[in-house]
Amino acid sequence: MTTTSAGPAGGTAATSVPGTAKRTWTRGYTWHARPRLFTLRGDLTASARPARPHRREGRPVTLVERDADTSRLERFYDRIPACDPYGVLVVVSGAPGSGRSELLHHLADHAASRGGTTLHAVAAPEERHLPYALVDQLLCALPARGRHLRPQPAHAGPVALSPLQRLLAVRRALLAHRSSPNAPLLVTVDDVEFADPQSLRCLAHLLRHGRPGQLVVAVTHRQGVRVRLPGLGELHDLPGTLALRTRPLGVRGVGQFLTPHLGAGRGPRFAHAVHGLTGGSPLLLAALMSDRWAAKEPTAEDGEPQPGEQFRQAVLACVHRTGRQGLKVARGVALLGRTATAPLLTALTGVGDGALRASLAALQEAGVLDGMTFRHESARTAVLDDLPQEERARLSRHAAELLHHAGSPPTEVAAHLLAAASGPRRGTWAYGALTDAAGAALARGETALAWRCLRTAERHCRDERQRLALQAAQAQLTWRRAPSAAAGQVRALVAPARAGLLAPDASVRLASQLLWQGRMDDATEVFRKAGATARATPDPRLRTELSAFHQHVALSYPGVLEKAGLPDPYDFGDRPSPGAGQAAFRWRSQAALASVLLTHDAAPAPGDPEETLSGVPSAQQSLEVQEASLLALVHAGRLETAATWCERLLSEAERLKAPVTSAVLMGLRALIAARRGRLLDAAEHATAALRRMPDQSWGVGIGLPLSVLIYTGTAMGRHEEVTELLDRPVPREMFHTRYGLHYLYARGRHQLATGRAHAALADFVECGERMRRWHMDVPDLLPWRTGAAEAWLALNDTARAARYVDEQLSRSAGASTRARGAALRVLAATRPPAARRGLLERALEASRDAGDAYETARVLADLGGAHKEQKDSAKGRLLVRQALRAADECGAQELYRSLQPSPGRGAPPAPSGQDRRRATAESASLTAAERRVASLAAHGYTNRDIAAKLFITVSTVEQHLTRVYRKINIRHRKDLPTNLDFHVADTA
């Protein structure tokens, strides 16, 4: 017996022997195009078929979870010849890709084993209106020995035959093709719902009027669609009809399918994940395996299969086979994504409720959808990519409008407007959705998306104000990347802002950018205009926004406030009302900073900066909020908390790729480290901040990181580097800002350290004058009086120095211990030697409490000198050793060298030759462990410090010291020699 099917071009049939046959329509693992179908004559154009899976050479093929169906088919076929008065009809329904054709293939194999003959055809939508196209296809499948039986009229076209002539010709040709008179002829038709009515009536006639046992017709059709089968439909309910339905595989069935490909262990292990990916569709499973074997770099041994191009094509085949409405619904779901709902899909696709439910069910059973969601993103992108560009743009515009009217978030509406790419102006709603989406994208750090939204919004502008608002938003976006690059955009907005064409909140942002650039006059005008507009509006958000910015100007650009001409420059208005929204957080951050910096009676009530930082995600906070909150913590003496928050915010800024925010936070991190006396860390952070952004982009803000570098460089003795830093050009307007105060103070420290006391005094006094004039004369900002007192001491004017430092201490009563510690140290220098120790001990306590390592080292050095002046040399040496250690650890090399003139890091004063010989002799008797402990103790480390450094217990340290005292013949810790041959730094 032979099995035949419609052949390739030219109508040549494919003939094969059962058991070795390769069928063009059979199941398998690789993906090829269906063969083209041709009619009896060449007068009808050939049409391409949808893709269809084919068997991969050498791979086993098994039907999974189909045992009951195959058994019913076999039993049904075996009892046909004797009992049916008519021909027999088998109908197999199911979702696309569910294995319907596999059952036909199994039936054909079973028929072959019984000596039967099979002819196969595939119906196609494009041939539905071609009369007898399906019958012609069956006849084309006849082997060469039966072709002479086909009707050959002299005139053109099969339509010239009468229906009776064609029926007789077909009957004669088909029945003559039987290989055995005892076995029925099996005719199988895939996708019968697409067959032409004439062919179906022909097959129905043959079934009705044939002899018993002569003919079996087996057809497949899609489940969930209304199938019209002229002629055949009438036979559906007769006794000689068998109806089967194929369903998706379960998890266990998927595991059985995977086992031949992945192995007995890995198949069941990945079954659940693969079932979630394919929905149990045999077609999608086969495509997934085809992708696996076709991959140039196969999936890792332990990795689950990943979808590829074959899977994408299989998904498209499933979608297209669900019909025209199913295709529309699939495209609608792909387009709407997670926003898809039944009402939206109906409105978008035009598919009615009933048809929508049927299409969704078909797509779900085909393994494409899970509810209203694609089972895998690659399936969704495949459907979207299959959409013609113009159709996709039209649907995207329609989806955007539907989502807008449904009240969806602007980001979802904007996504479809962006996908539309072009099209007519959609109105104010489109402009608003795109600008709002740009703001949301900016808050998430998605700068590229924000740019796309703003550019697309340009097409939907209605008037000049909207166009200017877009320009302001684009300037803000450029500013976040590089303020210097936004200079031209900012400049172009000044005139419209002065004319009142810019919205108040956009004017406030513009004024902030102008201030950063040092354009104080323009900023003043824009600020004044925005203030007048905001005060005239009842909008609580705008009023709070203006009040927050007013405080920001007073705290960071106080020189501008002097020029603004306001009736009361420090009247910041009332606290935010409930409707202020995000503006309330900006107001609270500025109020928190004002409460620790401003001395004016109108300063706002203090708030907790941590509450402000915690109240809104950092991605949505403005740079002004973060800077003000951190500075409020710093100037309140909460340095540990400030450092923790700064690191957290900096990490988030780096994640969001916000270079300006990152640079400013690096500068604040440097300031915090400097306040903690960690000079090396502060210098490193300040250098990183200046490298993160060019000087042109820093604007007047460069004063903060630059002042930290000048201050730390001076303390570390890097005076040549500091001189180069001071030669670095800075904006002249910087000295009208808070950043300029830091610069003046740091420059004064350098002048003082390099012997220019008069110049230093001038800088300190100028810094103080500005602080007083700007109502910022608080010790926790900058201790300019302490600096001035040190300058007067350098000029040998103890009385003036004492007056300055006394005034500083009187203002430091409620201030942080850091400012008080430095003032007490300088005050001690104005007192007689007998009165210094008590003041310095208080200074030491205050500096340690403040956590200022550098100031602690300075106090220790002065206290050691005071003890020596009082003839307590041993205590003095111990304190000096502690000062050496503290100076070395914090990087204060200038102080270190003044205490330890000999070369070498951590080296003690150079001993005489006799001392060296004695020390060598004494240390020779010590073990290595004893020598390590003794050396650390000689340099001022406590027993607990030594234990921590050497990873031993305190008791062990005490035992080592006891033996050391005995061996080198000393009685007290202060008598330990400092020149033991052990390097203290080695324990760091």
Automatic annotation (TrEMBL):
Domain HTH luxR-type: 919-988
Record keyword ATP-binding present: yes
Database matches in InterPro entries: AAA_16 (IPR041664), P-loop_NTPase (IPR027417), Sig_transdc_resp-reg_C-effctor (IPR016032), TPR-like_helical_dom_sf (IPR011990), Tscrpt_reg_LuxR_C (IPR000792), WH-like_DNA-bd_sf (IPR036388)
Transmembrane segments: none
One GO CC annotation: cytoplasm
Listed GO biological process terms: regulation of DNA-templated transcription
Record key words, sorted: ATP-binding, Nucleotide-binding
Record keyword ATP-binding present: yes
An example Gene Ontology molecular-function term: adenylate cyclase activity
SMART domains: HTH_LUXR
A Pfam family recorded for this sequence: GerE
Region listing for Disordered, in residue ranges: 1-21, 897-924
Protein origin, superkingdom: Bacteria
UniProt cross-references to PANTHER family, sorted A to Z: TESTICULAR SOLUBLE ADENYLYL CYCLASE, TRANSCRIPTIONAL ACTIVATOR DOMAIN
Name assigned to this protein: HTH luxR-type domain-containing protein
Organism of derivation: Streptomyces cinnamoneus
